[in-house]
Design brief:
Layout: E1 12-19, E2 25-29, E3 36-41, E4 47-52, E5 58-65, H1 79-86, E6 90-91, H2 99-106, E7 110-115, E8 120-127, H3 131-139, E9 145-146, H4 149-166, H5 170-180, H6 196-205, H7 210-221, E10 227-233, H8 237-248, E11 271-275, E12 282-290, H9 301-309, H10 317-323, E13 327-334, E14 343-351, H11 353-356, H12 359-374, H13 381-396, H14 403-414, H15 422-426, H16 435-444, E15 451-456, E16 467-468, E17 475-480, H17 483-493, E18 535-539, E19 543-549, E20 557-565, H18 573-599, E21 602-608, E22 612-620, H19 624-636, H20 642-658, H21 664-676, H22 683-689, H23 695-705, E23 708-717, H24 721-737, E24 741-742, E25 761-765, E26 776-786, H25 789-813, E27 819-827, E28 830-839, H26 844-864, H27 867-882, H28 888-901, H29 908-918, H30 921-933, E29 939-943
Parallel strand pairs: 1-3, 4-10, 11-15, 19-23, 23-24, 25-29
Antiparallel strand pairs: 1-2, 3-4, 5-8, 5-10, 6-9, 7-8, 11-17, 12-14, 12-15, 13-14, 16-17, 18-19, 20-22, 20-23, 21-22, 26-28, 26-29, 27-28
Helix pairs in contact: 1-4, 3-8, 9-16, 12-17, 18-19, 18-20, 25-26, 25-29, 26-30, 27-29
The chain binds zinc ion (ZN).
Zinc ion binds next to α1.
Keywords: Hydrolase, Metal-binding, Metalloprotease, Protease, Zinc
InterPro entries: Metalloenz_LuxS/M16, Pept_M16_N, Pept_M16_Zn_BS, Peptidase_M16, Peptidase_M16_C, Peptidase_M16_M, PqqF-like_C_4
Pfam family, one: Peptidase_M16
C-alpha cells in the first residue's frame, strides 16, 4: 500500500465567510459536507476556524501551537513534550488539579495532545451542549497555566513511563536510529520524548531548575500568533465566533515568529544500517530526502509515486517480489517523520526468509521499477488521472471523520496550508498535473541518494550489529552501501532491467504500469426502503439470513457478513491452525485482485474464528457482488500451492512468536480471554502443532471442514431484500452441490464463558511475554454476569464513574504508570469490571496492593457523591449510549454483534440507556460493595 491511503479528491466550491484578513473567497469542500465554515483572526493574531455542524453529538476543539521537540534546549531533551503534559494539570482560573480532564470526561468527552517536531497539538471532544465551559477550561492552557513544582516531579514519571512503553517498539527504535545517524548539529538528531534521566535526575545533578525552564520555554514559544485553533459545534457560526473570542481572546501575544530549521538533517546518502528488531522477521527500508509534499500539495508528486510503488495489483513491484517469494508486504510514500523544511520518501518491504537472502536483488527490483518510470511514458497523464478519479470517488462518498480527529487535523493543517485549499490538502486531492515536477522528484529517487535500514532478527550481536543506540539500546551497525550493490542499482535504474535475473526475458521483469481498474462503480442510486434494525428474512437448514436496508447515511454502500460455522474448524489446536492457514492463503491468493478493489472502495476480510470462518465485505453496492463472487470462488475452489504454503507457514510462525512482543498489559488481556472463554486454545498450543501441518493435509482438512456448515448472514445497507436472498440462495446451491451438509441443530457449539465460583479471588503470577520488556502489569477482572440489561447498566455505570477516579488516583497522584485503566469489559456475552495498570517502576504485587487500596476509596466516593453530581453522571452515560452512529459501517457492525453473539437485543443502546437512567445511587453502591466488601467475589487477576 501507500503510506498515505487517504487521498480524497473532487471538490466543489462553497462560499465561506472569511474574517481572517484574507480576501473573501471560497473554501473548497467535499460534496457530502454539510458543515458551515468560517475563518476568524482574533485581535491577538490567533487564527480560528469555526465549523458549524448542526447534527454533531460531540463538539470538538483543537489548538495547534507551532513549537515542538526541534525547539528543545540542548540540555533538556524532551522539554517540549514535558510541557505538553504539564499544561493538563491546572490553571490560575481552575486551580484544582485535573479539573480540565475531569470536566471533559464527566461530559462524555476525551482529551489528548501530542508533540511533533514543530508543533504541539492539544485537543478534546465533549457533548455538544458542554462546549462553552469545556472550551473555557481548555483555553487556560494558553493563558495562565499553573506549573507546580511537585507536579513537575510527579509528571516526569508519567513521561518516563510513556518512554518505557515505547522502549520495545520497533517503530520508535527505527525512528531513533535515523535520528542517531542524522546530522549531529541538527536538532532532528536528538531524543525527543524525554525520560527521568533527561527531565529530572540529570538536571538535578547539574542544578538545572526544570520547573523554571518549563516556564521559560512556555514564555519563549507559546504565543497567540503561533496558534491555530478549530472549534466544531452545533452552535451557529456567530455563536461559535463569540465563544472563540471570549475563550481565546485573552491568550497573550508575545510577537513571536515560528522557528525555522535547516533542511540538512537527514543521514548521509549511501548509508547502510543494519539493526536487530524486537519482533521476529526482516524488513528493508529505502529512504530518500525529498522536498516536503506540503510545498507542492496541489500537484502531489510523492503521492503519484506512492500510488505506483505501493501498487499491489498485477504488474506491480510488489506482485513481482511476492511471486519470487521474497516479500510479505510493501509500503511506499512520503513518511510522517518529516518536518517543514525536509522530508523523506521511503519504500519499506517486509521480507520473507528467502527475501532476507536476496536483499541486493530485492533492492535492484525497486530501482528497476523506478528505471521503468524513467522511460518515455513512465510519467503518464493517464495514470495520474486514474489515480485522481479513484481519489475523487473516495472523496465523494467519504463518511464523516470523528469531530476530535477532524479538529486536530484541521488545526495542524492551518499551520501549513492556504486557507481556501485546507480541505483539499488534508484529503490529499491532487489538483494539477505537473510532469516536470514529477520528473524532478523521480530523479531524486536514485541509487546515489538512497540510504537503507535493514532490520532482521537473524542478525547476530555483536558480529553483524556491534553498536548500541544510546536511548533505546538498539543493536545496529552503520557503514557505506556496498559498491557492488550500487553498481547493480545503477544498471537497473538506467533501464537495464532485463539484465537483472529476469527469468521471463521481459524488460523490467514483466513489471508495468497499473491496468484500468474493473471495480470502479458507475451506479450510485439509493434504494427506497430504510429500517432501523435488521429482520430475519429467510432461514433454511443451512443458513439464517438477516437483512437491514439502510440509506440514511446517503452512501450507496453495502455491508455483508457471512459467518461459516463449521465444527471441524476449531475442534483441536491443529484444526484451528489449519483454519488460520487457509484464511491466510486465501488472502494471499486474492491480494492482486483485491488491491484494485480496495482502491475503488471495496474491502473484504477473511478471519478464522473460534467457531469457523468469518467473511466480511464492505463497499460500493454496484461492484461489491463482483468481489464477493471472487472471494467465494477462491474459498470453494481452494488449492494449496506448495511454495505459497511454506511461506504462509513461515509467516504464521512469526505471528505467533511476535505475540511475545506485546506490551505486558496486552498480554494480560489476552490471558484473561483465554482463561475465561470455555473453548479457546492458547497460542503456545498453536506453536506446538504448526510444524506438523502439511500442505496435502490442509487440502483434505478444507474438504472436511466444509463438509458440515451452518451460516449466519447479515446483509445491510443499500441493498434490496431480493438481492440479499439471491446471494444466499446461490451460495447454498453451490455448497450443497459440493459435499456439504447443513449442521444439525444438536451439533451447534455455543460460545461459553467459565463462571468463576463465588466468592473467589484467583491470582496468576505469570512472567511477562518478553523478558526484554521491564514493565510489569496487573490485569484484574471482576466477573459480573451474563448479558442482562440491568446488570450491564450497573457495570457500565461503575466503569463510567470509576475511570476518572482511577486515572486521578493511580496515574496522576500515585504515578504508578502511564497506562492505568478502569472500565466495563466483555468476555463474549459476560460482563466484567476491568482494572489494569502497567508500570515501569513498580512490581505487580505493589500495583495489586494499590488497586486493593483504591477500590474501597472508590466505594466511598460513590457513596459520598452529591446527588446532583450522580444524576449528571448518569445522564452523561445515558447520552453516550444514545449517541447515533456516524457511519453506516458502525451501525451495521453493532447489528452484526447482536446476531453473531446470539443476543439479538435490538435496540440494545436504547434499552440500556433507559436502565442506566433508572438506577439509583443506593442500588449502584450496593452493587459495587457486594463485590467490594465481601472479599472480592469472582476475581481473576494476572500479574506479569
Ligand atoms: Zn506524552
Amino acid at each position: 500500500p501507500r503510506f498515505q491511503i487517504n487521498p480524497y479528491s473532487m471538490v466543489h466550491a462553497r462560499e465561506s465567510t472569511d474574517l481572517g484578513g484574507g480576501a473573501p473567497g471560497l473554501l473548497r469542500c467535499p460534496t457530502t459536507d454539510e458543515n458551515g465554515y468560517r475563518f476568524v483572526k482574533l485581535d491577538n493574531g490567533l487564527q480560528v476556524l469555526l465549523v458549524h455542524d448542526p447534527k454533531t453529538d460531540k463538539a470538538a476543539v483543537a489548538c495547534d501551537v507551532r513549537v515542538g521537540s526541534l525547539s528543545d534546549p540542548d540540555d533538556l531533551p524532551g522539554l517540549a513534550h514535558f510541557l505538553e503534559h504539564m499544561l493538563f494539570y491546572s490553571s490560575e482560573k481552575y486551580p484544582v488539579e485535573d479539573e480540565y480532564s475531569k470536566f471533559i470526561s464527566k461530559h462524555g468527552g476525551q482529551t489528548n495532545a501530542f508533540t511533533a517536531s514543530e508543533s504541539t497539538n492539544y485537543h478534546f471532544d465533549v457533548n455538544w451542549d458542554a462546549l462553552a465551559p469545556a472550551l473555557d477550561r481548555f483555553a487556560q492552557f494558553f493563558i495562565c497555566p499553573l506549573i507546580s513544582r511537585d507536579g513537575v516531579d510527579r509528571e516526569a514519571h508519567a513521561v518516563d513511563s510513556e518512554h518505557g512503553k515505547n522502549l520495545n517498539s520497533d517503530a520508535w527504535k527505527a525512528l531513533q536510529l535515523w535520528k542517531h545517524t542524522a546530522n549531529p548539529d541538527h536538532p532532528f538528531s536528538r531524543f525527543a520524548t524525554g525520560n527521568l534521566e533527561t527531565l529530572l535526575d540529570g538536571p538535578a545533578r547539574k542544578n538545572v531548575e526544570v520547573h523554571t525552564r518549563l516556564k521559560e520555554f512556555y514564555e519563549k514559544h507559546y504565543c497567540s500568533q503561533l496558534m491555530r485553533a478549530v472549534i466544531i459545534g452545533r452552535e451557529s457560526l456567530d455563536d461559535l465566533q463569540a465563544l472563540a473570542s471570549s475563550a481565546f481572546g485573552p491568550v497573550p501575544c508575545r510577537g513571536l515568529r515560528a522557528p525555522s530549521f535547516s533542511p540538512e538533517a537527514t543521514p548521509r546518502a549511501g548509508l547502510l544500517m543494519k539493526a536487530v528488531p524486537e519482533r521476529s522477521g526482516h524488513t528493508l527500508e529505502l529512504q530518500w530526502r525529498v522536498e516536503p509534499e506540503l510545498k507542492h500539495y496541489d500537484a502531489a508528486p510523492c503521492q503519484y509515486f506512492s500510488h505506483l510503488l505501493g501498487d499491489e495489483g498485477e504488474g506491480s513491484l510488489f506482485a513481482l517480489l511476492k511471486a519470487r517469494g521474497w516479500a510479505t508486504d510493501l509500503c511506499a510514500g512520503e513518511s510522517g517523520t518529516s518536518f517543514s523544511a525536509a522530508s523523506i520518501f521511503r519504500v519499506r518491504i517486509g521480507l520473507t526468509d528467502a527475501g532476507q537472502e536476496h536483499v541486493p536483488e530485492v533492492t535492484s527490483l525497486v530501482f528497476s521499477y523506478l528505471g521503468m518510470l524513467r522511460q518515455p511514458g513512465g510519467i503518464s497523464h493517464q495514470v495520474w488521472e486514474d489515480a485522481r478519479a479513484l481519489a475523487q470517488l473516495r472523496f465523494d462518498f467519504a463518511e464523516k471523520m470523528a469531530p476530535s480527529s477532524y479538529a486536530t487535523t484541521l488545526a495542524g493543517a492551518m499551520q501549513v496550508y492556504g486557507r481556501h485549499d485546507l480541505l483539499l490538502a488534508i484529503h490529499h486531492v491532487p489538483q494539477r498535473y505537473d510532469p516536470e515536477l514529477l520528473d524532478t522528484v523521480l530523479s531524486t529517487l536514485c541509487p546515489s541518494e538512497a540510504r537503507v535500514l535493514w532490520a532482521s532478527s537473524s542478525f547476530q550481536v555483536p558480529t553483524d550489529c556491534p553498536l548500541k543506540e544510546p536511548w533505546y539500546g538498539t543493536a545496529h551497525s552503520a557503514g557505506p552501501l556496498p559498491a557492488e550493490w550500487l553498481t547493480h542499482w545503477e544498471a537497473a535504474w538506467g533501464g537495464e532491467g532485463a539484465a537483472l535475473g529476469d527469468k521471463d526475458g521481459h524488460r523490467f521483469c514483466g513489471m508495468h504500469l497499473p491496468p484500468p481498474n474493473p471495480y470502479i462503480p458507475s451506479r450510485f442510486d439509493l434504494i427506497k426502503e430504510s429500517s432501523s434494525s435488521p429482520a430475519k428474512i429467510h432461514a433454511t437448514p443451512l443458513y439464517t439470513l438477516w437483512h437491514r436496508p439502510e440509506t440514511g447515511f446517503k452512501v450507496p454502500k453495502t455491508a455483508i457478513y457471512l459467518h461459516l460455522r463449521m465444527p471441524e474448524a476449531y475442534l483441536t489446536p491443529r484444526a484451528a491452525v489449519s483454519t488460520q492457514l487457509i484464511s491466510r492463503l486465501l488472502t494471499d491468493k486474492l491480494s492482486e485482485v483485491a488491491y484494485p478493489a480496495e482502491l475503488a472502495g471495496l474491502h473484504y476480510g477473511v478471519r478464522a474464528t473460534t467457531s469457523g470462518m468469518l467473511l466480511s465485505f464492505w463497499g460500493h453496492s454496484h461492484t461489491l457482488p463482483r468481489l464477493v463472487q471472487t472471494v467465494l470462488d477462491s474459498l470453494l475452489e481452494f488449492e494449496v500451492l506448495p511454495d505459497r504454503f511454506e511461506l504462509a507457514k513461515e509467516h504464521q510462525a512469526k505471528d505467533y512468536a511476535n505475540m511475545r512482543h506485546e506490551q505486558p498489559y496486552q498480554h494480560g488481556l489476552y490471558l484473561l480471554s483465554v482463561g475465561l472463554e470455555a473453548r479457546r486454545w492458547h497460542v503456545r498450543d498453536y506453536e506446538a502443532v504448526l510444524p506438523g501441518v502439511m500442505g496435502d493435509s490442509l487440502r483434505a482438512f478444507q474438504t472436511a471442514m466444509l463438509g458440515t456448515v451452518r451460516i449466519d448472514a447479515l446483509i445491510a445497507g443499500n441493498v434490496p431484500a431480493a438481492d440479499a436472498r439471491a446471494l444466499l440462495q446461490a451460495l447454498e446451491a453451490r455448497l450443497l452441490a459440493g459435499r456439504c451438509s447443513p449442521l444439525p441443530a444438536s451439533q451447534r457449539t455455543e460460545a461459553r464463558v467459565v463462571a468463576l465460583p463465588s466468592p473467589m479471588r484467583a491470582v496468576h503470577a505469570v512472567p511477562g511475554p518478553n523478558p526484554a520488556n521491564d514493565n510489569s502489569a496487573v490485569v484484574v477482572a471482576f466477573q459480573a454476569g451474563r448479558d442482562d440489561v440491568r446488570r450491564n447498566a450497573l457495570v457500565d455505570l461503575v466503569g463510567h464513574l470509576g475511570k476518572r477516579e482511577a486515572f486521578h488516583t493511580l496515574r496522576t497522584v500515585e504515578q504508578l504508570g502511564y497506562i492505568t485503566h478502569l472500565s466495563a469489559f466483555w468476555t463474549l456475552t459476560v460482563s466484567n469490571i476491568l482494572v489494569l495498570i502497567q508500570s515501569s517502576a513498580h512490581s505487580a504485587r505493589y500495583l495489586q496492593s494499590r488497586i486493593d487500596a483504591f477500590l474501597p476509596k472508590l466505594a466511598d466516593s460513590l457513596r459520598g457523591m452529591p446527588a446532583e453530581e450522580y444524576a449528571a453522571h448518569v445522564e452523561e452515560l445515558a447520552k453516550a449510549k444514545l449517541e447515533k452512529p456516524k457511519r453506516l459501517r458502525d451501525a451495521v457492525n453493532t447489528d452484526w454483534s447482536e446476531i453473531d453473539d446470539g443476543t439479538l437485543r435490538f435496540p440494545r443502546k436504547e434499552l440500556e440507556a433507559a436502565a442506566v437512567r433508572s438506577i439509583t445511587q443506593e442500588e449502584l453502591v450496593a452493587f459495587f460493595e457486594a463485590r467490594e466488601s465481601r472479599g472480592y467475589l469472582r476475581v481473576l487477576s494476572f500479574w506479569l
